[in-house]
Amino acid sequence: xxxxxxxxxxxxxxxxxxxxxxxxxxxxxxxxxxxxxxxxxxxxxxxxxxxxxxxxxxxxxxxxxxxxxxxxxxxxxxxxxxxxxxxxxxxxxxxxxxxxxxxxxxxxxxxxxxxxxxxxxxxxxxxxxxxxxxxxxxxxxxxxxxxxxxxxxxxxxxxxxxxxxxxxxxxxxxxxxxxxxxxxxxxxxxxxxxxxxxxxxxxxxxxxxxxxxxxxxxxxxxxxxxxxxxxxxxxxxxxxxxxxxxxxxxxxxxxxxxxxxxxxxxxxxxxxxxxxxxxxxxxxxxxxxxxxxxxxxxxxxxxxxxxxxxxxxxxxxxxxxxxxxxxxxxxxxxxxxxxxxxxxxx
Length: 346
Prior knowledge:
Blueprint: H1 5-8, H2 22-29, E1 36-39, H3 46-52, E2 61-66, H4 69-74, H5 76-81, E3 86-90, H6 96-102, E4 108-114, H7 119-123, H8 148-154, H9 157-168, H10 173-186, H11 192-200, H12 214-224, H13 227-241, E5 242-252, H14 255-269, E6 288-290, H15 300-305, E7 313-319, H16 339-342
Parallel strand pairs: 1-2, 1-4, 2-3, 4-5
Antiparallel strand pairs: 5-7, 6-7
């Protein structure tokens, strides 16, 4: 959640999770009677509840996916109350097509993604997402893989600066990276408070602005969870699993996420202009139709009730009957070293 200072405030922690842009997202999905929908970021189940409660489709089914084991466990009561209409899976949303097929659905009617970190995760000190509490420097959305502490301990000064600059849009990234490397020579950086204090000595606090460590924390979280690569893979998976006329709705919270979604839908819908000076090339048939040329943003009432919504953008597309494309989406991602290259044995 990076686009603008308001969005960055969430790294310090906000209120409990409230589904953002739930009403327009549900309108984008156009829930149908007997339809099957994937909530790729189940979290607290806000979008799933909205689909299950849609009076026009009382028999719609939902496959909820979350890489966070606690989110899946907390959703058990909703599974029970759904009367067999909800299935939950602990997995990455990049695998959403595989998960759907595992549960007997070769194609689905809709996919909704709510990107970024949830308020519940921010509120748990032991998860290490927020400097609002002192906790272990973890930041993993799932329970496996390297932690933020591993990255801080092993990344070179140059790589740290690149990660913090590109994923956090931090102007002082080089100074922050230099301070981290100097500090870790004296003692390991294992807690959120320790890291926040180091960053705070480089990035000075200003009145009425975000905490100095916000951008660094968000950059490390995105890197540790490989969030942008996961997003690109999830968009391709949605393209593969959606039926003709199936809908994709994506709520993003920072510029890098929104850029990936925007370019993907523009390219897949044939909305990207081609220079008349270039030679004619055969373009693939559009796999999506844009639901809106401009993103939907929250109104004043929603942002007043839910500060987390302030930077949210909703984009969507409707699947055509053209075959999915097998081309890679790596060009949409920032050029950074892989997490496994940074962390030995990662």
